[in-house]
Design goal:
Length: 82
């Protein structure tokens, strides 16, 4: 069973994208290349991974992703800061 990660990526417009994956580096590169990347990055580009949280299975990663997506921008920035 693979470990799942929740990650946040800062985009060129300073927005923050939230997603889940088993391989953060691979997924970031997919977003960069545009192939198999999220529709979110059409019209903006990913800059850097600014947050990762591991230790999840697929289900708990999805739940945590949903929780993070409901946060305000300021709350997401606070999460990134630690």
């Amino acid at each position: 069973m693979n470990e799942w990660f929740v990650y946040l990526i800062r985009a060129t417009d300073q927005s923050v994208y939230t997603g889940i994956t088993t391989d953060v580096e691979r997924r970031f590169n997919e977003h960069l290349s545009g192939r198999a990347g999220a529709k979110y990055f059409r019209g903006r580009s990913p800059v850097e991974v600014v947050f990762t949280e591991g230790g999840h299975n697929r289900s708990s990663a999805s739940i945590r992703e949903s929780q993070i997506k409901k946060l305000s921008r300021q709350q997401k920035l606070n999460l990134i800061k630690g």
